[in-house]
Hints:
Elements (H helix, E strand, L loop, with lengths): L2 H10 L6 H10 L4 E2 L2 E2 L1 H96 L12 H7 L8 H15 L7 H19 L1
Antiparallel strand pairs: 1-2
Helix pairs in contact: 3-6, 5-6
Amino acid sequence: MNTDQAFSLLKEAGITDNIETFKQWLREGKIKATGFTVDDKALIRFMKTQTKLDKDQIIQQLKLRIKAKDAEIKGLEDLHAAQSKVLIQQRDKLYNEIGLLQIERNHLKKETINLLKENIELRDELIALKEKFFKGETNKDGPDSFSSSDIRQKLGLTKLAIDKDVITAYKELLKKAHPDHGGNEKLFHYIKTDFDQFRSNSKD
């Protein structure tokens, strides 16, 4: 076949559509030809070789692309694993903190309950003592017969405390016992009555 027919055959086979490339192959002897006549068998062998080379190149390119994709997937998997590990650590830390907070809350709750119980017990004890004091159970003659030193002692003052100190102590006691401040109304009444009696005796 002539060179034009050979070039057309190469184009149809998808090997090349560049005439200069075809001429270069002729000059280099890759396609055996005499003048404008091309050896049919030599052309077929060349086409088979080129087709095989093209397929090998395609396979190699596909392998490289697959390898690149595998590396990309591996990178994403490693990143996902690292992020998952961090998230798991953060989750575990939060669970630990929640557990500690719950323990602390329960501890504070118990302490609050104990303090409330202690406060109630102390208040009850104070009420009982004050009721006993103002009813005169600690003195057979009743509250009116208390001496000045007895009053000072009961108020936690020294025997040398002046009347002003006694009045100040009474006022503090009245403030604590006042119902508006969480005190006991009955106890407040007892203290107020005794305070009024003390002031009345002091004026005399």
